[in-house]
Amino acid sequence: MVRLILFIGLGGAGQRHLRLFRKNLKKVKLIAYRSTNKTPLLNPDFSVNNKSSIEDIYHVQIYHNINDALDLNPDLVVISTPSSMHLKYAQLCVSRGINVFVEKPVSNSSKGLQELKRLAKENNVAIQVGFQRRFHPHLIKINNIIKSGELGKVLNVNFTVASYIPRWHPYENFLDLYACRKDLGGGVLLTEIHEIDLAIWYFGIPKYVACVGGTYSNVGMDVEDTVHLTLDYVEFSVQINLTFWQKHHERFLSIFGEGGYLSWNQDGDVLSAEYFNNPDINGKYFNAESDNDSMFDFQIKSIVADLSSLQFKGNIDESIASMKIVEAAKESMLNRVTVEL
Predict the structure, then answer these.
(1) Mapping DSSP to helix (H, G, I), strand (E, B) and coil, where does residue 296 land?
(2) Is-contact 77 100, C-beta < 8 A?
(3) Which of 9, 194, 247, 329: disulfide with 14, CB 3.0–4.6 Å?
(4) Are residue 83 and residue 181 in the same domain, yes or no?
């Protein structure tokens, strides 16, 4: 039974998690550790709510000393700090025998992650990294179709994610966002790591990584804002195009196989399936629960159920794999070479 959850960091991502955990666990005690109090109370659409406070809306007690909060021995810690701080807090929690749910990416570097994995195993706790897109109904269906073999031999895969980062958080200067700062673990590769995780989920670990890209904007960022990444599985490749410097927002994927074709577009949230040898089962699938919160909500429901049944296992291995791909991509960009994993 879950009795106490600690939140470390209550920026935009942290407040979303807080809101949805409170929705799912109305009677569980929630506490939080804040070191800066930088982000005000946000509405679900990330606009500022000046009429109340985080404490009053979510019935959460705020601590300003991390050890005081950890001494209460929470069942789960939810880490939503800038990426460069994830490892520090995750190590602190697992060393105390506390389960961890940490926002993606697991860190801003693979350094120290094997030791984190060892600590978690030694203390019999799990680390779940927040790859909420694995909980989207259509992305789950795509995984099931791939694993069923209905597409036949996979030939070509494309992911595209584009957004305009100045529009992300209207309540703050976008250049202060962790995503725009190297020291906080930013850059589009880490910030939009979801598609790399989906490629691992769907196809496993690639053999080679190649990447071109860089800082194409001219606003003072010290991180890459655009990349074109190739994951080479030898018999097919996955192309991943990522940018947060495009004013037309889009997110879509396509998968071509010898036996069929799948495409999904976030706009309208429609999954299309075409089967070349069995056109009678071609179809389009619509998702009635297509708001952005749904994936996060499904993820949290899964975490709560796993914790309650003592089956919380985490996904640290795949999270480390995604980090190694990001590091290989950065090496490839810097040296203009293909990197073998």
Answers:
(1) helix
(2) yes
(3) 9
(4) no
Edge-first strand order for the sheet with 208-214 is 283-286, 270-275, 260-265, 245-257, 154-164, 237-243, 226-232, 208-214, 339-340
- Angle, vertex CA 159, rays to CA 155 and CA 163, nearest 5: 170
**171 neighbors 46 (Cβ within 8 angstroms):** yes
pTM of the predicted protein model? 0.95
Q: Is the dihedral of CA 189, 193, 198, 200 positive or negative?
A: positive
Does 289 lie in the same domain as 188?
Answer: yes
- The single-letter code of the amino acid at 174 is F
What's 95's domain CATH number? 3.40.50.720
Residue 305 inside a domain? The answer is: no
pLDDT tens digits, one per residue of 242-300: 999 999 999 999 999 999 999 999 999 999 999 998 898 899 998 766 678 999 999 99
pLDDT for res 286? 87
